Amino acid sequence: MRVWKYGDDINTDMLFPGKYTYTCSTAEEVKPHLLEDLDPEFAGKVQAGDIVMAGENFGCGSSREQPVLGLKAVGIAAVVAGSFARIFYRAAINQGLVLIEAPDAVAAYGDGDEVTLDVEAGTISVGGKEFTFPPLPPEILAIRDAGGLLNYARGKLEARG
Amino acid sequence: MGMTFAQKVLARAAGLDSVVPGQIVAVKPDHLLTHDNTAAIIGKIGDDLGKHGVVRKDLSVIVLDHVAPAANEKTATGHAQVREFVAKHEIDNFYDVGVGVCHQVVVEKGHALPGKVLVGSDSHTCSYGAVNAFSTGVDRTEAAALMLVGETWFKVPPTIKITLTGELKPPVSAKDLILTIIGDISAGGATYQAVEFHGNVAPLSIEDRFTIANMGIEMGAKIAVFPFDEVTEAYLTSVGVDRSAYEPVWADSDAQYVRELTYDMGAIEPVVALPHKVDNVKPVGEVEGIEINQALLGTCTNGRLSDLRAAAKILDGKSVDSSVRLLVLPASREVLEEALADGTIKTLVAAGGVLLPTGCGPCLGAHQGVLAPGERCLSTANRNFKGRMGCKEAEIYLASPETVAASALKGKVTDPRKVA
Fold it and tell me: What pTM, to 2 d.p., does this model score?
């Protein structure tokens, strides 16, 4: 498990360049370009179970779903940040990508620290120190538990008949 | 206790007497904007659409603008898929290539109205706060779900109150005001929050308000909204919307705010946002003399008639510096027609401007003015992120139409007060 650590205001162009937005839509098309202008190493070396950690306002900028699809597809266990931009936050809920808002945990992280997560319990451990984060509200958990927003919407359609 | 604009709109839309910040409510938006990304959106729900169809034919407003006209086979195929979907599902509101930038079209065609709730699969959907609408961006998957079920959730946001006093002193413009505010609040300073503009808003035209609301997302805001007033009503009447078609909403006088700020518009000066963050804002005097290769006049932030005219006034009878490519990108066909009729386009083209098709143009780096490594663009757009205009080794500076025109003239960043 590797922690990929970045700074504040990581925007959607850094996560997935705008020039590809109308030529790459699926997760497989997105993967090679993930974080291309931020960290050229990332796409080639990221592995399932890795964690992305960043400062404030992660995912700011465009309504760009591709970075969420891509991070989910490469198996990122969670993005841990001080805060998230709201469209990115919603997109992550809708895809089932785990986002953890834990500014204290981000501040405590030092290079090489081991990071472990217990999403259900709402705890994150950084270099042996444990931090908590608030659980998602029930309305949001319902979307996650349905397997993402589209399945949730399909459930509603079926219920309506 | 009084409620903010966001509380009142969301309470009304959710059928509740009152709501509080943090509360989650289910809302059926009045409209859903999607653009070229409609192709990817409907691609997620092909089988569902076949089985259930769209929830409402009047929900979607679809505008092809992001890579328009298409740049290659892939984008052309996307456009073709959107046209096929529109025809098959008899979508009421479709605007093909050339009508304009989606946000301008939504307002100009009367789809964004006071007190209404609109969402869009584009972050600058917040623009419609200019006409007292509650409007905000969502992702593609949410747009897909909305097409099927017509309902989504909102967390009621806390609100920042910004009170404006005084008046802008031309050539200082609304762009300088909003860049100054973003520089103060920071790129993430209004995340998850609503922003209300109060005070002396009457001197601000709908075009000014559009520029300001458009950039709300650049400080993280969910919405950025102006009150309904005579300026709003006159504008809506001018685009053919009857006063009976909407019910404006505004905050109660005893509403609670998380933060209150006041700006004297008379004290605002021309500013520039430096690479690669929109909140990296400096007075133009601190960056004067930086050489530019490209000047972009237009986009959904500053591509309206008053913007083009402000630039034309500065460029009238002159030529842009030989080192600069001036790109002119009107926000819509209606803007273009008016700017053709009054001679504005003639002035801009005579000064050396290259007229681009109405749409998003080079703003998102897909075509029509992509930058080369080492190049620098001064733009009236809303984002200067690294790589935004197609090249990560290029630099984007943001400013008003006045500053962009003055700088194009000199070949370097220039205070418009020195040439106006």
Answer: 0.96
